[in-house]
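Researcher: Next entry in the queue.
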Amino acid sequence: LSCCPSCRQPLPKCYVCLLPLGSINPYTELKRHQKASGADATTAQHTVPEACDMSTLHFSEWFTWCQSCKHGGHATHIAEWFERHDVCGVSGCGCRCASL
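Model: Structure for this entry, 100 residues:
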């Protein structure tokens, strides 16, 4: 999902990985499927995961944004960003999102 199903406007992108916020990181989803099925990399590529039940997704796979500057991204990416930085990751934005 890369756009709003109603108005077809593009969804914002995570400022760290640049994937649309409506998408699930395919690498995270593959790891989750492999862990659940006990499959290794060779057998996992021959199986197709069931449609993702959103209630089973960890919070880290959802998205978050700053209430001040409105920039955001996937929750894990934003948390990792602010472990190493004090200001927003969007170029030119000086917001100190982590301190709000």
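Model: Residues 43-49 have pLDDT under 50 and may be disordered.
Researcher: Noted, moving on.
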